[in-house]
Amino acid sequence: MPSYSLNINGKTLTADADADMPLLWVLRDVLDLTGTKYGCGVASCGACTVLKDGKAIRSCQEQVQNVGNAKITTIEGLSEDGASHPIQKAWEKIGVPQCGYCQAGQMMNVAGLLNQYPKPTDEQIGSMMAGNLCRCGTYHRIKQAIKEVIDNS
Ligand code: FES
Ligand code: FES
What we know:
Layout: E1 3-8, E2 11-16, H1 23-30, E3 49-52, E4 55-58, E5 71-73, H2 86-94, H3 103-116, H4 122-129, H5 139-151
Parallel strand pairs: 1-5
Antiparallel strand pairs: 1-2, 3-4, 3-5
Bound molecules: FE2/S2 (inorganic) cluster (2 copies).
Residues 38-41, 43-48, 58, 60 line the site of one FE2/S2 (inorganic) cluster (FES).
Organism: Panacibacter ginsenosidivorans
Domain 2Fe-2S ferredoxin-type: 2-78
GO molecular function: 2 iron, 2 sulfur cluster binding; metal ion binding; oxidoreductase activity
């Protein structure tokens, strides 16, 4: 089985995994970074979203052999204390999550959105967040929290 040296949350981590193993499973099952969630496995829900060189990607669709030297950021790496990133602060202030299952993916998608568009329009927010599903229907509060981040940046 090949061994991969991966840049994850600013650290170099080694993972022994089949070349075609999705990054999602490398994170969860090999590296024990279980904040990234499995929802659908087919790029339809966004639960598994992480950043690859600052861009939001679906980790269920990214084979470990294609990660290379890219910088991967997971929800565990958004801030060191798990609370001080502006997105985390806004989520807490607005009280966004219900069951919480989709929220790591939502927050990482927002991080990718704001890397791309620091002051996104409503249209950009709508289209970038459309693929992140929430069975609990927290969409209104997600939008409020995104506005909070933008207003305070
Ligand atoms: S688990 Fe990857 S998009 Fe649903
Ligand atoms: S908060 Fe429950 S699925 Fe989104």
